[in-house]
Amino acid sequence: MGNGRTAVVTGAGSGLGREISRALLGAGYRVALAGRRADALAETADGAANALPVPTDVADPDSVAALFETVRSAWGRLDLLVNNAGVSVGGTVDELSFADWKRAVDTNLTGMFLCAQQAVRLMKAQDPRGGRIVNNGSISAHAPRPASVAYTATKHAVTGLTKSISLDGRAWNVACGQIDIGNAATEMTLRMADGIPQADGSVKAEPTFDARHVADAVLYMAGLPLDANVQFLTVTATAMPYIGRG
């Protein structure tokens, strides 16, 4: 039986987006699955009746507007946006190409802004008013890896976006929080098992943790009443080189 609540998850075709989407679907949410690849979204949906795959480019304002109009037309309201879509772009500040910098900014930051903008507009206009936004940040905003200038800068900016949405949405019963994740086991972190560059110049394998725990954390954040909010939540592999000297 459904819970009557609706959600949008971006980057739903793989990795954390797929885990979060399936957890929400399992909890009875009606979930619009947003991502660039229709086949990947269909795989995430896996035939679930409460899934609505919507191919979307989060960096394109028209595509994002169409996503939220589809949600409004289908369900009449939006209770939750999980702003998850992102790309990891490696490169030092002196070597990173402008094209790669722009790709990171367009997806990781502008994409989140565009989705949040449309979500807040819908949440303000619906009855009952309000909803929740969960932004996927990163511990890279606090402790960057070598050669991660674009990823780190965009994720640092997401923290500012989260705080601003929280403030701007307060009068409209729109809550916004952020989850910062370190080394969840996804396609993006497979390379960590072979070793990843450290700040001291060494290359070491790093531990990961089951991505389902991220989905559980998002479910907790999403399940709170709108008069309570998890502003920032950090989930990492216990033994990863984050706290301390690494």
UniProtKB/TrEMBL annotation:
Matching PROSITE patterns: ADH_SHORT
Record CDD domains: SDR_c
Record Pfam families: adh_short (PF00106)
Keywords, ordered alphabetically: Oxidoreductase
UniProt xrefs under InterPro entries: NAD(P)-bd_dom_sf, Sc_DH/Rdtase_CS, SDR_fam
Family membership: Belongs to the short-chain dehydrogenases/reductases (SDR) family.
Protein name: NADP-dependent 3-hydroxy acid dehydrogenase YdfG
Species this chain originates from: Amycolatopsis roodepoortensis
